[in-house]
Fold each of these.
Amino acid sequence: MSNGRYEDSQLYRIRHSAAHVMAQAMLERFPEAKIAIGPPIEDGFYYDFDLPRPVTEEDLEWVENRMKEIIRGNHPFTMREVSASEALEFFKDQPYKVELIKDLVSGRVDENGNEIAAPAEKITFYTHDTFTDLCRGPHVANTSEIDPEAISITFKKPAGAYWRGDEKREQLTRIYGTAWENKEQLDDYLNRLEEAKRRDHRVVGEKLDLFTFSPLVGKGLPLWKPKGALLRDTLERWLRQIQIENGYEPVVTPHIGNLNLYRTSGHYPYYKDSQYAPIQIDEEEYLLRPMNCPHHIMIYKSEMRSYRDLPVRYAEFGTVYRYEQSGELHGLTRVRGFTVDDAHLFVTPDQVLPEFKRAVQLIQHVFNTLGLTDFRARVGLRDPQSDKYVGDDAQWERAARDIIQACDDLGLTYTVEEGEAAFYGPKLDFIFRDALKRNWQLGTVQVDYNLPERFELEYVAEDGSRQRPVMIHRAPFGSLERFIGILIEHFNGAFPPWLSPVQVLLIPITDRHVPYAESVAAKLADVGIRAEVNSGKARMGAKIAIGREQHIPWMLIMGDRDVEANAVSVRLRTDEDLGSMPVDEFIALAKRVIDEKSLSLS
RNA sequence: GCCACCAUAGCUCAACGGUAGAGCAACCGCCUUGUAAGCGGUAGGUUAUGAGUUCGAAUCUCAUUGGUGGCUCCA
């Protein structure tokens, strides 16, 4: 946002007002509807209704057309202060409004569900045309300020939403709208949505043969196909190597563990609702592990530790299983079985700051290499109001100080947000903004005093005393599944060559060029370049079209001229034509780009 | 889990109460091709599953399963 707060912008007033216009039109369509709330949101607005029947597409079209009519009526928006009793009388048939007014007057929460410090001093109504709503504004002065061609409510399907976001309360129908200053902006926005749909990792993943799901295997359990597994394995091998270079030691632990392990860690029964139910076997109960930390802790605990051994850094691509509500599953970004690029660092209190910094630097290196440069850091501290956190104040303060110190030392741009801590300690999260300007929480580094306490971890200090280590949890990718899902959408399937499942597509022009293509492919394979020959009967143009669709970085076209010269004609997936070059020259070029993990193709 | 919507060939879709079809992919031929899909043919479906209504169901009803958009949740 270039100029000030969204709440103060004209766009905000347009959207807020459009929400009222929509409510008016909806009430005309559904006179018995009960209205809830209708605030502006990012890119638009919504209004929640309690309706006698489901909304159809025809309803939405009717309402949208009616909205345009109302807007064209040039109705002024007028504000009026009313007393609580007057407000209650006016909305006596609107139970949701009554509840809102009562909460406003009693000073509990405002219309958006935010707690308010004191009872509202005044209640205001906004009226345009025939519709009056409980609202504190602001609005446009007149509906003429809204461009009737710059709104849409048919662009998105109605959705269910709980009254006041509480799943124990009424389920309402939420109608989403979008509104802009002019038609061009609306079209831009709709195009952005279309682009996001095209880039959807579920669609692209299917097209590129990366992964699939099978109801017979189970919901939320992705199956990686060879090309997806190759991409994933490339990432894993790369990070594993970086970690070894940074003093991490790979460990391997099982995917299930005795329930008592999770009782000790505190995950069970506290997070029981988001775990697979325990498995009973031989009088014992086992849990599909929801986290890797307890397993790594038991390795730490398997021997006596000296301060000289610390820091101990255990890393594992550890697969975990969590019960996610069925409605929350979404492609690779929300699954029930996923792999965390997990590592647990066991350090002395003095080592927290330097180790934390090293972990952050490692994450920065990972992101920068992938070209994920648009990210910000968020320091998550505990919510001072809440008692859901463990550990004493001094530890929390020290950890928070260390994290902020680390950010300052590294020159990170960061925000500090209360209530974003893990229950066992403060943390630093990296929020990445992808090519479509959407935010994703990726890597995380967390300081933990709790688990060492619960598992009674120790090391022998210089003076011979037993001391408690501190743990640092960190994961640059977070979940491999989610991370790759995000990469797919960010790159639109056009991965940097070192990650591309197929790096080179060889296209012989006629059958007689196939043996030559195969000999070139063999040379490429010799130096570790992933190449495929398309020896099918299709014409060259068709093969190029397929290669483009698969976003294969390099296409090598070869006919008589190339065979003659022991050359290949190089075409990039960006449609750039590098012309003919000797085979060895191309191999050197591709090898350099791949080895450098370059983001460009030449 | 909740609300709404959806489910037809491997993929994208058509048929909308009266015999299930197309394009792409696959397979087989022909063409032997120079930078964004040459031509012809073959095969592929108890219309997600199970009940029901009907003379007759892909089509209407109900249930189940799976998916989609949101909500809630995400240690």
Note: Chain A has a mean pLDDT of 92.
Amino acid sequence: MDTADLAKIFKALGHPTRIKIVEHLIRINTCVCGEIVNIFPYSQSTISQHLKLLKASGIVCGDVEGPKTRFCVDKHVLNQIKDYIDRL
Amino acid sequence: MDTADLAKIFKALGHPTRIKIVEHLIRINTCVCGEIVNIFPYSQSTISQHLKLLKASGIVCGDVEGPKTRFCVDKHVLNQIKDYIDRL
DNA sequence: TTTGTTTATCGTTCATTGACGATAAACGAT
DNA sequence: ATCGTTTATCGTCAATGAACGATAAACAAA
């Protein structure tokens, strides 16, 4: 994981809503877009965009499950971030 | 440190150059703007802006020392970030 | 006090972000 | 096959970001 990858993840986490989404995903392990939409005061398209960005950064993955998409935090990537920060 | 503060710091770290600046500051403990300008292929004004942003986020502090400004990483804030990430 | 050095700020330009509503796409169920 | 549900994408708009050169500001030294 080089600096560009790290920056991408930090950038993805550089928004309060996205931090809260990640925290929520970790807390409940996995969930679909709709559940997140219900929690936050933003439109479905906005939440979907945030999830897309998180996914593009690598910190979150999403598996299509019929018409739904099941999102969760990539533990491996999360651990890489932890290792990096710890070593700072 | 609430979510907004965290997001601000992650956002500040969400750029390769700023990550490298922080890494450099940690490595050599402290340095002035000019030294950083010499390392990176960006103009003085661009580096100064990056430093301003890092400072505004709280992760970096800068003490004016005559005509120079001496920058360093705020260890306390860094530790708060470490704690937060570890607990994720 | 003038000069040189160092840093911050201003103004500009182009690209990206964050939010939205509307719409399309994918699929399960009827 | 159609309908309802769920998610993704598109287009738009205002705001912010990243880079630059030029300039101002702060200070040391001559």
Note: The domain at 3-87 of chain B is CATH 1.10.10.10 (Arc Repressor Mutant, subunit A).
